[in-house]
Design the sequence.
């Protein structure tokens, strides 16, 4: 797989995750974060395992040997991240959640450099900073000073916990070795569902109070963010560095704005400018600029 194809997969993953933010805000009004996570991943497993068995033909012996790292990934990426994200949306807006989420790439770069000894050039560091500015430009409607005046509520703090958990999930994913990505996602999600089930049964939801919109949202989250995004993310991590993949998370607020536009919301000039800054920063930080420069130099030579 080429680097361009890997980044295309990351782009789609972030597009699906953007929808998760939008639906998550509506569904949390009727369904608890615990049951949202359990229902979403239980449905997702109905798709994940058939795909894994058909395309990857899992080595069950290797899965058993890797049970500890798979359990850790289930605790972090399935249980921890989703519970914290949906709990955050109970207290804060998707916009604030997106602003806090913009810190995720910086955390991934920091911990990857410390734990995996990954290095980044000055161009990539500059791209990271530019994409952060772009995200802030979007969520503050062009008033960057608003970031300094923002009163962060408990939801924002929960989002900080969510992105920290996701950072360690991404790093743990590099330790899977030869286990195929779809199989790894299915196995870690299965372990997470088994862990969640006893806690969820203590407080079952009132099914009569769940609207069709919430059911649609849960179905969307089961198919696209759960199956699609996690598979695409794990596949891409086999071909690029964790720190580089983390920068692509800046695309989530950009896609959130685009989805809002399709739903009839107005797009401001600040959102357009911010989106351009994000794409420019992501291109630089992920090495796409360097790759293009290399191709151009090769052509001229």
Sequence:
């Amino acid at each position: 797989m080429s680097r361009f194809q890997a980044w295309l997969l990351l782009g789609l993953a972030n597009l699906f995750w953007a929808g998760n933010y939008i639906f998550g805000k509506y569904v949390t009004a009727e369904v608890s974060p615990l049951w949202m996570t359990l229902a979403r991943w239980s449905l997702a497993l109905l798709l994940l395992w058939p795909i894994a068995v058909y395309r990857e033909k899992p080595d069950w012996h290797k899965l058993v040997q890797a049970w500890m790292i798979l359990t850790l990934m289930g605790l972090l990426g399935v249980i921890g991240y989703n519970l914290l994200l949906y709990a955050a949306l109970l207290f804060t807006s998707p916009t604030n959640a997106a602003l806090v989420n913009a810190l995720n790439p910086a955390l991934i770069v920091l911990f990857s450099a410390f734990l995996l000894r990954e290095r980044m050039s000055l161009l990539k560091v500059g791209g990271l900073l530019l994409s952060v500015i772009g995200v802030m430009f979007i969520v503050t409607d062009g008033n960057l000073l608003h970031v300094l005046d923002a009163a962060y509520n408990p939801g924002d703090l929960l989002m900080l916990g969510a992105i920290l958990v996701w950072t360690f999930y991404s790093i743990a994913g590099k330790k899977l070795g030869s286990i195929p990505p779809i199989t790894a996602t299915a196995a870690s999600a299965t372990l997470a569902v088994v862990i969640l089930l006893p806690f969820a049964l203590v407080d079952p939801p009132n099914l009569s109070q769940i609207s069709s919109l919430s059911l649609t949202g849960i179905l969307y989250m089961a198919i696209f963010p759960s199956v699609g995004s996690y598979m695409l993310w794990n596949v891409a991590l086999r071909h690029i560095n964790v720190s580089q993949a983390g920068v692509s998370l800046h695309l989530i607020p950009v896609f959130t704005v685009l989805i809002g536009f399709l739903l009839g919301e107005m797009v401001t000039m600040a959102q357009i400018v911010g989106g351009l800054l994000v794409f420019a920063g992501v291109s630089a930080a992920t090495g796409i600029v360097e790759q293009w420069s290399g191709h151009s130099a090769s052509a001229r030579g």
